[in-house]
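Practice problem: predict the structure.
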Amino acid sequence: MPVREKKLIQRIRRAAAGVRSGVVKGIGDDCAVLRVPSGHEVLVTTDFSIETVHFRREWHSPELVGWRCLTRGLSDIAAMGGEPLAAFLSLAVAGDVPQKWVDRFLKGLLELAEEFGISLAGGDTAQSAGGIQADIVVVGSVPKGTAVLRSGAKVGDAIYVTGELGGAAAELGLLRKSKRVGNLRQPLPRNLRRDSGYSRPHARIEVGRWLRERGVASAMIDLSDGLSTDLGHICEESRVGAEIDAAAIPLAWVGGAAVGLELALHGGDDYELLFTSAAEVPAEIAGVRVTFIGRVGRFAGMRLVGADGKARRLKAGGWEHFRGDL
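Answer:
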């Protein structure tokens, strides 16, 4: 059982000690006080991490749950071309969750915060009726008027993705096969490490910054729900269509083989960046692979060009809450 709330907050405050640039006052008052750089606008994003929906205690170590929790917010900041300033965590845990789990969760979250030079500047704690729910809020900034939105894609723009796709979904499939059966836990496959891409994704902050600073990206989104779903968001907000080449999609390798196209299209949880551009884009940005996969069109909806050269309608098939998949 976790320690009582007051003591838990004290433990979190000690673990998150060390106010960094941009945080005038962190944990300890009713509100945090942030300093936004002159001439900048504020970015705010929030994301849930819910037990059995986004993670399972029997599959993921607490450190990796904390790491992934913060990554979800950082990736949204990256998709706007922004710089993260501070994070806020609201954590609700059931009475049967040991304090050791909470401590290790915070260790993973704070390890990633340290990597990006941001503070855990506040939040809330509560006892839940069951399981664990963590809501992460990340505040960032971007020079006034330069945030990269989903609504800027233009007809004729090229479509690009960073990294490789489908790896997270493939690894999740392996985890599902290794799930607990009755009182017996089958071991994880040898080709799936607990610090793999699914467990420890990296938000593409540097790539997003590079694209924003050079005015390269006309529209951008992070790939958390799947390529087909997130590309659909750009099409909807920009009021354009999109045609992508199936053969061009960069497939991740898991277990010594390339993942299937369906996983790359619809799998999600990759936390790569999808963006459109009318400018010339290098094949690598900040050490991350960048791949041209298609082009923005004047037609409605999305199309996928197969190996036969024929374009077929592409439906959004990625993650969507309340669809009944749980």
